[in-house]
Design a protein that fits this description.
The radius of gyration is 16 Å and the shape is globular. The protein is an alpha+beta fold. Helix 3 (about 45-60) crosses helix 4 (about 90-105). It has helices at about 1-10, 30, 45-60, 90-105, 155-169; strands at about 65, 80-85, 110-115, 120-125, 130-135, 145-150. The protein has a 6-stranded antiparallel β-sheet, sandwiched between helices. The protein contains 5 helices and 6 strands.
C-alpha cells in the first residue's frame, strides 16, 4: 500500500532513466533488477547509499528515525523510506530545513517545492533518484516528517507499476 502511494506522490516512471540495455531497450525486471545493496547501471547509487545520505543529513539536523512502514521486499532496491520522529527534534521545521540543505550540499538538486502554512514538500533529484522531503502538520498535533526516495529508471518504474497493480486487486 505504501509503495502505491509513493508511486502517485513521487511520479515514478515519469522521468527518464539510465537502466537501458545495449540496444536501447529496457531490460526485463526479473533478469536485471538490481539486488538490494547493488548499484544500478549508469553509476546510480544503490538504495543503501541513498538511505545513508538521507540518514546522515537528517540525524545531523537533529532528527532521530521513527520506525514505520517497511518497504516491500520486491521494492527494496528501488525505494527508501526514512521517517523522522518529529517529537524528538527541538524544532522539527528547522531540522527539516537543515536536512534539505544538507542534501543539497551533497549534490541533490531541488526540482520542485510546495510551501504552504502547514505543509512543505520538496523534490530533490540526484543520480537517477528522486527524494520527496515532506514536513506536514505541526508540533502538538499530527506531525509527519518523511524523506522518501525512489529510483527513477525503467526497471524500478516497472516494479512500482507491478506493485501498484498487485495492491489494487
Amino acid at each position: 500500500m505504501a509503495a502505491g502511494v509513493v508511486l502517485l506522490v513521487s511520479g515514478c516512471g515519469a522521468g527518464g532513466g539510465t537502466d537501458k540495455g545495449k540496444d536501447g531497450e529496457a531490460p526485463s525486471a526479473a533478469a536485471s533488477a538490481p539486488a538490494a545493496g547493488a548499484g544500478t547501471s549508469g553509476g546510480s547509487p544503490d538504495a543503501a547509499a541513498v538511505k545513508k545520505e538521507i540518514e546522515a543529513a537528517a540525524t545531523s539536523a537533529g532528527f532521530a528515525e521513527k520506525t514505520g512502514d517497511d518497504v516491500p521486499a520486491e521494492l527494496k532496491s528501488c525505494m527508501v523510506s526514512w521517517t523522522a520522529d518529529g517529537k524528538k527534534a527541538a524544532d522539527s521545521r528547522k531540522s527539516y530545513d537543515a536536512t534539505v540543505a544538507a542534501l543539497a550540499k551533497g549534490g541533490w538538486k531541488e526540482t520542485r517545492s510546495v510551501d504552504q502554512p502547514a505543509t512543505v514538500v520538496k523534490s530533490l533529484d540526484k543520480s537517477g533518484w528522486s527524494v520527496k522531503a515532506s514536513h506536514q502538520g505541526k508540533a502538538g498535533a499530527l506531525l509527519i516528517v518523511s524523506f522518501i526516495a525512489t529510483e527513477t529508471g525503467p526497471i524500478c518504474a516497472k516494479a512500482f507499476q507491478e506493485d501498484l497493480a498487485k495492491n489494487k486487486q
